[in-house]
Design goal:
The protein has about 160 residues and is of the alpha+beta class. The protein has one domain (about 15-160): Beta-Lactamase (2-Layer Sandwich). About 35% of the residues lie in helices and about 25% in strands. The chain contains four helices and six strands. It has a six-stranded antiparallel beta sheet with strand order 3-2-1-6-5-4, sandwiched between helices. A hairpin with a 6-residue loop joins strand 2 and strand 3 (about 75-80). Helix 1 (about 15-30) packs antiparallel against helix 2 and helix 1 packs parallel to helix 4. About 35% of the residues are buried.
Amino acid sequence: MAESLIIPSTTDRKEIYQSLTPQIEALTTGEPDLTANLANIAAALKEAFHFFWVGFYLKRDNQLVLGPFQGPIACTRINFNKGVCGHCYTTKEVVIVPDVEQFPGHIACSSASKSEIVLPAFDKNGDVFLVLDVDSDKLNDFSEIDAEGLEKVMRIIEGLI
């Protein structure tokens, strides 16, 4: 296991994702505990990109329940039909929200959150097992580059489930 990350000194997110993804894979290889792996992945993403909030919501019975995260305190439970995370869960698709104030039913866990990207991870049956929620305190902070980079991270996570 690596004890530190090597983050390129650039603002080019594509380059950062290209550097970070294999490090996340190395970080999780051989560690069987999902909670430990998700905690380190959240920390790696926060450290590399300085996002406002990075965390996971796991499917528990009929809700998404807060898992490992980095950032300010967060909503503990989210119904499947509520907010950006619930929308991602029910549609099984990546959701990019340039301005959370414009998203119908947005759950304001923090008023500092301005934009958001949420991605699903699937279990071996093809069901959503968890979602990765990343918030920024800047408007329109996420793009297809983030979607592509974070989808690679989600494939790593699916290998751990």
